[in-house]
Amino acid sequence: MPVLTRIDDILTDLRAYLGDDAPALSLPPAAYTSPELWELECERIFHRSWFLVAHTDQLAAPGDYVAVSVAGEMAVVVRDGDGVLRGHSPVCRHRLMPLVEPGAGNTAAFTCRYHLWKYGLDGRLRGAPYMAENKEFRADECRLPGFAVAEWNGFVWLNLDARAEPVAAHLDLIAPHFAGYRLDRMVQVDSWSLEWRANWKLVMENGHENYHVLGLHRETLQPFMPGGGDIHVEVASPWMLHLRIPLAMSVDSAMLSLDDVQRAHAMVGLAFPASAFIALADQVVWLTFLPSTIDSVRVLGGVLTLPELAVGSADLARTQQAVTAMINDEDRSGLEAVQRGAGSRYAERGHLSPKERPGVLAFYRDLAHALLDDGPWPGTL
């Protein structure tokens, strides 16, 4: 079978996932390599969707900021002097110099290192050397373009569309599944920023199923979160999914009031297109896979726990960090290999296992809606 390359062919295959009898097949291989599809995703998905970009601990004090890139578009989230979170485009309005590099830090103002134009934390221009001599320039009208930002139970969300529908309305739909975990009290004890050389859809397919644990995580996850278990998928909205992944044995926490379902499962919240948080006993992991290019993602994430447990054994903390790093590397190695396979001229669509169908097909439906619907995405509740 020849590899599909035309965008119309890929979209035709995507449309089939919207029907009641969706094919239990993976996406066509060209979906992971097509420049035309990538451009469409940038326009219809990445530039108008919410991404989980930080935990509030990273933005606790005035001037704390986190800078990211979403499909090549730079963004910065900062805590201003009034304690309000703001999102800006960190590109100087003068000669296009980025004001910050990807990462995190603290600053009293954003100063361009090119010509020393200075912007306040609210995005307004505070200084521009010698520009008073330019009578056509209005300093009071110069400010950084703004993006939408939201906080929800300690998670910080960013949307490049300043007029985006509030994210909390969707997150609140799955909030009952996370009652008892005390998300709003948790503190961050580990974090990472990694690059994986794989298309974002491959990464998200991986996150919507536990079947891959059989192979990629045989020693790290398989013993307590078996890949042969049947996951439960609940569609909360066109934008939000809840997954329950069964555990080999129940877990509990003396610090939390968990119900029987929570003790027997890893509880997952998945926000289209590329963010997730997973609760397991007294630990919560958050992850976002920010698309960088057609074949790479920036992986942001962190581990949260209760303050009372964050001051525990340093040796235990180092062990947990090592295990988390190992799991991330197992996923990275596997997905980068799949990306290479997607480029083969002999690559074809694969049949989905019953163990992966519920989650993967739900992701495909969301993807199809986002790329094919004419209306706003994610749409009203």
From TrEMBL:
InterPro entries: Rieske_2Fe-2S, Rieske_2Fe-2S_sf, Ring_hydroxy_dOase_asu_C_dom, Rng_hydr_dOase-A
Names of the cofactor(s): Fe cation
Keyword Metal-binding part of the UniProt annotation: yes
PROSITE patterns: RIESKE
Pfam families named in the record: Rieske (PF00355), Ring_hydroxyl_A (PF00848)
GO molecular function, one term: iron ion binding
Keywords, comma-separated and alphabetical: 2Fe-2S, Dioxygenase, Iron, Iron-sulfur, Metal-binding, Oxidoreductase
Coiled coil feature spans: none
CDD domains linked: Rieske_RO_Alpha_N (cd03469)
Highest rank taxon of the organism: Bacteria
All residue ranges annotated as the Rieske domain in the record: 50-158
Name of the molecule in the record: Phenylpropionate dioxygenase-like ring-hydroxylating dioxygenase large terminal subunit
Organism expressing this protein natively: Nocardia puris
